[in-house]
Structure formats: structure tokens, C-alpha cells
Amino acid sequence: MKSKGFTLVEVLVGLAITSIIIVGLMDLFGKFTVGNIQFCNSTKDVLAINRAFDLFERDMDRFISVRGQIKSTHFSYDTSQDKGNSWITYEIQNNTIRRIAKEPKSRQGINIILTFNESSSFGFENNILTFEIDGFERSMSIDWSENSGKRETNN
């Protein structure tokens, strides 16, 4: 006599195969989600680093002269403004990059430009200033004989 349904063994085998497929799909979905989150975080970090570099380059377009010594965690310089000369300091401390600006006849302003993940530093060699953040860097030539004008930038 022929039965019109599934046997218990067939149902159990079907459930086992279905559960294996579901576990595999969930694992694949989890890996995709983690990869997508890491990609988004990396993109967000790179955009923030580029914004910090852009602000630094904008400030350097008005560069006049260095104040003191260039250190790996500190760079201070004079800039030309519409209202007169001012000074700007970039300081690296506790995984943050701070910009301190003092304009003529105004109070000092402090902004946290970026909180970085790995490392950040300034370097200066052969009239080339290098600003490094988390493995990305920008270089600018500082010609000590000139007092103003745009600086050559290398990405």
C-alpha cells in the first residue's frame, strides 16, 4: 500500500538540510554586515582625515613664519589675516589634534579638529613639512626665504 505523506525520516532529513542552509545563510549575512560596518567606519575615518588636512592646508595658504621649533606633536606659525597677522598652533595630544588660533583683538579659540585611531605627527626636513595622521600624510614645502603665497602640496 502506498502512503500519501512523508515519512518521519524524510521530514527529519528535510529539517536537518533546511537548518544547515539557514545557519550558512545567517553566517554569510553576519560576515557581510561586519564587512559593511568596517567599510563604512574606514570611509568615515578617511573623510575626517581629509577634512583635517584641508583645514591645515587652508591655514598654510596664509603662512608667514614659524613660531618656535617644529616638533612631532606641536607646530605653531604666524598667518596673514584681513585684520592683521594672527597665529595658529596645531597640537597633538591624547589621540586628538587641536587647532588653537589667536586673531588680532580677539580671544583665543581652541577646536578639536580630529580624534585619530593610531598615530599622528608633524615632521620637518629639507624645508618640507609633513603632517601624518593614521598612515595618511600631506607634505608642503615651506620656503624660508618667502613670506607668503601658496605652498606646494604633495598627497
Structure description:
The structure is a single chain. 34% of the residues lie in helices and 37% in strands. It has a domain of 92 residues. The C terminus is likely disordered. By secondary structure, the protein is α+β, with helices and mostly antiparallel strands. It has one helix and nine strands, in the order H-E-E-E-E-E-E-E-E-E.
Helix proportion range: 25-40%
Q: SSE string, helix = H, strand = E? A: HEEEEEEEEE
Strand order of the largest sheet: 1-2-3-4-5
Largest sheet: 5 strands, antiparallel
Structural class based on helices, strands and sheet pairing: alpha+beta
In DSSP terms, counting alpha (H) and pi (I) runs of 4 or more, how many helices?
1
Number of strands: 9
Condensed summary:
By secondary structure, this protein is an alpha+beta fold. The chain is 34% helix and 37% strand. The strands form two sheets. It has a five-stranded antiparallel sheet with strand order 1-2-3-4-5, with helices on one face. It has a four-stranded antiparallel sheet with strand order 6-7-8-9, with helices on one face.
Give the SSE layout:
Blueprint: H1 8-60, E1 63-66, E2 74-81, E3 84-93, E4 96-102, E5 108-115, E6 120-125, E7 128-133, E8 136-141, E9 153-154
Antiparallel strand pairs: 1-2, 2-3, 3-4, 4-5, 6-7, 7-8, 8-9
